[in-house]
Amino acid sequence: MTMTRDPDKWARLGSALRESRDRRGLTQDELAGHADVSTKSVQEAEAGKVPKSRMPYTLSRIAQALGWPAGAVDSVLAGGEPPGGWQRVRVEIEEEQAESIIVNAMVQATDNATSTEIRNAAKIALDELRRHGYLRETNGTQPNGLSGNA
Q1: How far apart are CA 127 and CA 134, in angstroms?
Q2: CA distance 136 to 147
C-alpha cells in the first residue's frame, strides 16, 4: 500500500490513537513506555502529523501497545474503523457553567463589544448547545438571565 499524504486521514488516525489511549487510561508517557518509543513519537502520532517520507516505525509499536491488530494503522488511514470503534461521548453541563465559559471566551476574543452584544452572542451559543442536546431545554424560560433584559 502506498503511504497517503492526506492530512485529514492522518488527523483521523491521530484521533483514533488518542481515543484508544484514553479508553485504556494511559498517559502519553505511559503509552510511550509500553511501546518503547519516545513521548514525542506518541504526541506526533496523536497530533496526526503527516510523515515526511515514509511510515514511521513507531506507529506500529504504538498501535501494538494499544492492542491494535497488525495492519490496523493502514486500515484506519484507508478509511476503516479503528479497533474498538469510536466512542461517542455526550457531555451535559449546567447552563450557568456553559454561559460563564462562553462569556469569558467572548470577552477575551472581542475588542470594543458592549456587554449587551456579548450577552446576546452568548444566548445564541447557548441556544445552539441546547439544540444539539448539550443543555436541557428550558421551555421558553431563560434561567441564565439572558432573556434580553440587558
Answers
A1: 10
A2: 16
Average pLDDT over residues 36-52: 94
Give the three cell numbers for residue 3. 503511504
- AA letter at 91: V
Q: Whose CA is closest to 105, among 122, 90, 88, 93?
A: 122
Residue pLDDT, tens place only, 11-26 = 999 999 998 998 889 9
Q: What is the DSSP letter of 140?
A: T
The grid cell for 145 is 438571565
Q: What is this structure's pTM?
A: 0.58
Q: How far apart are CA 22 and CA 8, in angstroms?
A: 21
Residue with cell 453541563: 93
The answer to whether 32 touches 4, Cβ cutoff 8 Å, is: no
DSSP strand E in 38-137: where? none
The pLDDT score that the predictor gives to residue 138 is 60
- Length of the chain equals 150
Give the closest residue to 91 by CA, choosing from 52, 54, 129. 129
